[in-house]
User: Fold these one by one.
Assistant:
Number 1:
Amino acid sequence: MLQPPPAQPGMREDEVDTPALLLDLDAFEHNLARMQALLAPSGAKLRAHAKTHKSTVVAHRQLAAGAVGQCVQKVAEAEILAWGGIADILVSNEVVGDAKLARFAALARIATVAICADDPANVARIAAAAEAACVRLSVLVEIDVGGGRCGVQPGPEAVALAQAIAGSPHLRFGGLQAYHGRAQHFRTPEERGQAIGLVVDDVRRTVEQLRQQGLECPIIGGAGTGTFEHEAASGLYTEIQAGSYCFMDADYAANRGGASAGFRHALFVLATVMSATRPGLGVVDAGHKAVAIDSGMPLVWEREGVRYTGASDEHGKLEGGRVSLGEKIRLVPGHCDPTVDRYDWYVGVRGGRVECVWPVSARGAMA
Amino acid sequence: MLQPPPAQPGMREDEVDTPALLLDLDAFEHNLARMQALLAPSGAKLRAHAKTHKSTVVAHRQLAAGAVGQCVQKVAEAEILAWGGIADILVSNEVVGDAKLARFAALARIATVAICADDPANVARIAAAAEAACVRLSVLVEIDVGGGRCGVQPGPEAVALAQAIAGSPHLRFGGLQAYHGRAQHFRTPEERGQAIGLVVDDVRRTVEQLRQQGLECPIIGGAGTGTFEHEAASGLYTEIQAGSYCFMDADYAANRGGASAGFRHALFVLATVMSATRPGLGVVDAGHKAVAIDSGMPLVWEREGVRYTGASDEHGKLEGGRVSLGEKIRLVPGHCDPTVDRYDWYVGVRGGRVECVWPVSARGAMA
């Protein structure tokens, strides 16, 4: 069952039940506007990544601010967005399995949808799903631009797969998916710029080879919050797939310099000190079931000297300062995406008051 | 919203949609029976920990096998269990905040409930909640037996808190909560036995000092899957709070020797190979949103040489063997509790067929 919302509009922030996923609406709106301002000179469009926010409400706010659509990683996420009125959705990932592909194809009746592929046999299964659903599906070729994970090799291998897609009466060649995930977290702007320079070379070469075969790319997509300024400036990418920019997290904040430095922390986990039996130690009610630690411990927000030093399932240790029993503490998650996925509700706050609660409607949408 | 179940009874295991939380029912039932057999000679009772399974169905199976009740860490978990017909529930944790305490007190009308405390001011708030709800609440004193987290010191500090509880007309002294979490994961049986030897000394001394003040302990509770044989053999503990024993995970399996060695892996994440573009690399559709990595990467089940070497949000890398696109792979989670908490459904399998789907009804119950 769903959990009840931990707050109601009108409450003071210190009345919010914990643990709660807090969204600072001023910072969030600042981030949406800033991304659009940063992208405007380049001509690249924002297709914001819903794997970060898992929410139709956030998706609609991003579209209202100027995004052209949304990305997702999973068919189940695409369903939630399409059912919630999002009109243009790209599954920026491979999808394998006939049942999932049938669900994906069904969405083409109510939204503009596209999907990625890196295998010719799977392209045939996508075509079969499209045929069975009497729709024509857009398929992008994912190329491996340094992640070493999914994707065919740039160049001839990508061209061959694009030809297989374009050759099917049930499919449409949708362009290239070229995302370098690890590069988002390279710490200096020089490292990030250098990595994306190589990515852009791969993409440019592949686009040219496709063109020689008569294949144009409707979408050339990729990039994230750490590197998007480089992809946007390339003049090659048509769509930027940043997700975390709207919330930010401790890991992205540890990146030095670059455009992403101007985004503000908008997402917090609100926790309560539930034990404080000795000086210098506080225990909060938010452990790693409440805040993701895959990219490091959360930061303690605006509490001089206090650090979150360790997480167990339901407890977090605070050390290095005085905290008192019952006190509420804001934590900046180390990693926003998996933290959001642990909650059923956002609590939107502004000026110390709860302004709204929004459902995390695609929470757990992993299929 | 809830996600739909990834399977239906009668399906073959290889038809289950992924990622899915798979429960091997033979192994699960073996584990329930084995725990009861191991505890029988000691006289200590099992109060199984629901923070592991988050499920009224699993709780009822444990009670049917001989457990006397359930533990939880959160009031929201206690609510789900009480609403689902579990008659005896201990919140083995401190609860701070009047709204939460009011919710807890309300449960005393439909179940036998108890709670822990480590602070006199909070004991007064529990008493106020009990008075407002016109109920009398059992409160256990948590003592710090080596975890260095919650709990008062064993001995006089614990006695003083117990007297404060016993002195309230709205409360009942419920006994001692004495759990050493870290000791569960000490790798050798000697280390675990030595650590629990010290715990038992602390508990014995505190029980004697309480008795000198006329206070008997209805419950002396603690222990987990890694150490319970020692607490049970002490003759002192009345209740064992093991949780993971029913599922097991890679981290507990890395413990050497001891009684827990006889439990079997019952919990798996079923994943699909969704990309396999080069020899020696497979990518599955289960990253760390689908399988917890706080206690290490998952193990690959019964696939010679294949290892899960890295997790990103939605992808897991398999290396060291041949896997093919579309293949389904069982993963043994590094840590069962937070893995379960990411799912809405268990898929119970036996002999290669789906026998049942059960809701993870307390998924996300963090408040």
Number 2:
Amino acid sequence: MSKNAKLRLVPLGGLGEVGKNMMAYEYGNNIMLVDAGLMFPENDMLGIDYIIPDYEYLLDKTDRIRGIVITHGHEDHIGAIHHILGSAPVPIFATPLTRGLIEVKLSRHGMLNKADLRTVQAGEKVQIGPFAVEFFHVCHSIPDAVGLGITTPAGLVVHMSDFKFDHTPVDGWPTDYAKLAEFSQRGVDLLLSDSTNAERPGWTPSEMVIGPALRDVFEHAPGRVIIASFASLISRMQQVADTCVITNRKLAFAGTSMVDNAKMARKLGYLSVPDDVLVPIDQALNLPAEEVVLMCTGSQGEPSSIIGRLSTGTNRQFDVHAGDTVVLSSHPIPGNEEPISRTINRLFRRGAEVIYDAIAPVHVSGHASQEEQKLLINLVRPKHFLPIHGELRQLKRHAAMARELGIPAENIVVAENGQVVELSGGELKLAERVPGGYVFVEGGSIGDVDLGIMREREKLARGGIVLIDLSIDKFTNRPLHEPEVITRGFITSEDAGDLIPAIRQRIKELVNGGGLDDEKVIVDAVRSFLYNETKRRPMVFVTMSKA
Amino acid sequence: MSKNAKLRLVPLGGLGEVGKNMMAYEYGNNIMLVDAGLMFPENDMLGIDYIIPDYEYLLDKTDRIRGIVITHGHEDHIGAIHHILGSAPVPIFATPLTRGLIEVKLSRHGMLNKADLRTVQAGEKVQIGPFAVEFFHVCHSIPDAVGLGITTPAGLVVHMSDFKFDHTPVDGWPTDYAKLAEFSQRGVDLLLSDSTNAERPGWTPSEMVIGPALRDVFEHAPGRVIIASFASLISRMQQVADTCVITNRKLAFAGTSMVDNAKMARKLGYLSVPDDVLVPIDQALNLPAEEVVLMCTGSQGEPSSIIGRLSTGTNRQFDVHAGDTVVLSSHPIPGNEEPISRTINRLFRRGAEVIYDAIAPVHVSGHASQEEQKLLINLVRPKHFLPIHGELRQLKRHAAMARELGIPAENIVVAENGQVVELSGGELKLAERVPGGYVFVEGGSIGDVDLGIMREREKLARGGIVLIDLSIDKFTNRPLHEPEVITRGFITSEDAGDLIPAIRQRIKELVNGGGLDDEKVIVDAVRSFLYNETKRRPMVFVTMSKA
């Protein structure tokens, strides 16, 4: 370890979870990326499909990127890979299942044959530029997840992505404690650790508790069981499949991403479902209801998901009805509590029984809680600590915990996305800020929709709009026709019957008052007229032509 | 109790909590209302100030309304009184503090001298039409809250509004268990009970736990302490004031509603703050920081509240800065998790320390949890059960609990707002549905903004708008000027530089193609042009005039 070596860590993204979707390691002229995921839009980001990290910082340095390491196969860690590969066609390192899920994604975007994918097994070591990366197994809610031990010229860094210390995981493969202890003996200069559950006391329950809860539901449900989850929650698929075997039900996956991911996980041996248990969805819909389990997406209340469409009665292939039992088997991503709650109410209204985590343990978190986070810090005994994967409030809490465990305050840094952190000369400190915003993906547009546009949308939605079109005779300055008035999101058509003639009258008074050359005069007059009438402030647009 | 007597219960409101904001009791030609509160808009109901129950059902029956009984002084129980009184000037029955808070509200709307307010003490009985109403004390997060024992010709109904079984409440006055037992002995035909926390196991902690938590914060805070809460959380004001006395800090209330409510509660003897502890806000701002506690609104992350403005640096009277400790002392109303989380992150970003319920017990729920809900049912032993105050998911859970306690399933009814329930001939059953929607209040408009308008607003916000104005020469069918194109919430001004000329070009091609008489043809063409270019779908408006 060289004394003057300077390692730079650059968490990229917006105001969401720090360093979760993408973290750059930079040493001299070498960059290694860890993860390339997407964020889901919050409830009030209308129109947005998804959000990717702002990697403008990397755009003039793509020739320095030596590779991308992916820690596991969830969307928030792999969902932006096809965007990044467009700018930087570099090797991607991942364990077999993670690689398989990346392949599913890339082939959907027609980019599979352009990608340089390299399989790494947990326990292996790979040299990526100046970074010697040791992959070690961690438990999470997907198999084949890894943490990273990164030996750099500035010291040894342990990068814990999403993890929990589950002693009885679904695949029987606990977190590699021995490797963590070994790093500790070597001396860890910097630990990065998952802060998601830093506000949650105790120890996250093992995935094992879900099995009996599912069994209880499957055995007592009078008809079909419909499980809502994420398409990449492979461990949950396994538990559902196992419970189908025990309770003599057939399992069908619904939805492209769920079907594709399950197929890939089965092919690679990470998901074991007997051939006679797995049936296609159209076959399942023709079986007696009490013999069927359907597994689909929509656990976040997304209106366009299968569960979302079932709850509003707009799903094409099948409906939900009395006798069905819907199980929401995943956690609300922060900000989704409200749409999820609406979905639960709607499903009840359609006569279904709905089971969710407040009723039975059909979900557990995939992230370490406070006692596990503390155990990790004491296992690794790092010199410096950088909390990642969480919003500022969780990072602050995680940092406070590290201080309580004896890590000196000056060795702990809390940084948000876009804030460069440097490890150099035995010190961890804040360096400069780089662009670290949201890149909104909407339709075919990547980054074309910015925060300014989002603010305009909110303004449109707060008050609605009033459009006025006016043609004026250039000789007489009189209206050539009745002013045309269109409103949206402002008044009902009944109220429009009274208000629109009044608006027209007001405009005619103005025009007849004479000397009217300016659209802005009309905008202002209509605005204040509408405010007086309704005490509301729609956006007003006037187009005026003279002929 | 007459055998053919028919009591009708009509919960009024939208898809929110059932019967919380207003419940009508109807017997023959007599109506009694319980509570008249408002709802806060959800995060995606843009522009809405607040929501009141849809009482269209009552409008042609106002002469039958014998009175309004108010159970306690929180906004969701008193906030719509001034609207109701406008339609039905009937007597209002309330305990002294509740009446005081209603007076504060009515005088703000200039309606105090028009209202017929009647004070009732807990323990008293009042005859309201055919309803003999016994008021009895319950614990909640505000003093002077009551439950109701309502003797009707169809039987005895116990109406539990918001309550908890706190054994050590702030005012030392526990729930009146003896009265509940007495009702039980008389025989309760129907129990209505608060379902808010039906998904929460165990027993809600006593308000008492907050005192030591606040003391710990006040003693260790290096500078000012800023407490965020609701303006009507009078019990919390008392706890903050008590802790100020112990820790030698001065207390100032900020914000009109907080100041007015505190003044009224002090005047009536429900809030005890020594004169030398309470100081005006401008005086507090000039004292040494470590001697000051400010209490204000904004615990729900509302952008226009004091805490909301502090978090964005837009508060006029004072700022938040390093050294300040902000305490969020209230629960997130469902749907507010996201704005609250953003507010916490912003306050941290400004350098403040932020304390909230995940960090220290600075808040407890004011509502009974499952064990208390069960105790109530077993204390009262009602023949029939109607869960209220909760969304459908909580009502379903509460009903399941009542079944587990031995109430026959056929004696339990789950009804949403607008669903009439009848108690008659010893049976509880569903009757007809009446209008039960949301009435949105926005600016000066009450009910003018409806769900159709809300849907239009969402559509505006999802894709933004493109406005096109076109004048065509009526003889040559050629454009008289360049088509005017305005966009909002769709593209940035940089992108507009490329796209708008392309839109103009597309329109000119269409017009020159000839025979163009219809705005709709242009709308469709521009829509599909924009979809091809951007894969997005803004709302397109065209105004065309011929001259």
